[in-house]
């Protein structure tokens, strides 16, 4: 009688996965290995790294082109050279997850309210004034009114209270919190909803490109591909800036971050310097506004969640 280990290492005549007749080390029907064995820790680690973090042999060629050859990765993908590089969506998700995880673990504060003042007497005076203003504001709100930016008393929109009473109550709750609690709530919203907000901007970024290059004959999917690659690059740069130990290196990374996109646009879309610069300027203005709104909504969601 053969030992159990020998049976495990024997090549079966039938594939255990799809029941096809096999010969050799792989099934010709489904591709599964025919060499059955107990999985090792190294195999689990390789599977995790290869399939969920995108750290595999193709990564190094992908990252080198992504970081140092603007637009080339997009061109290579459109030329059909895809197997040698990490898939665009997978690359974007891996780098965005890594960025937000490192940002979270670094303890960085997206917004920190109530910064200490060098003069404790002045700081206390400011806190007293803010407390009195909050009391007055709360009294006005309780009477169904609000205060505009000029300090004028206005009627609070009845329609807002009727259509979104929950959000109104949550915002009033947020306003009543101390500064350190507000910072915690905003940070919570940034890290919980920020990745989704950034991902939701990809189709919008591609739409901006579609409008800017209307008549070029390029499909929306090509613009989306370019958006994924350039956004993945931005996450790498933001990570480098976050952990840069020297000011000179930070300055170099910021300069490369700014100059990368127009260089990539010119290479991918094959346009002139002036037209590329004009399109880049409009794109940055539109995307900057969208980014500010998205991050604001993400942090606002944390603020109104009552966390």
Automatic annotation (TrEMBL):
InterPro entries: DUF3667. Pfam families: DUF3667. Signal peptide: none annotated. The chain crosses the membrane at residues 89-107, 193-212, 224-242, 248-265, 277-301. Keywords: Membrane, Transmembrane, Transmembrane helix. This is DUF3667 domain-containing protein.
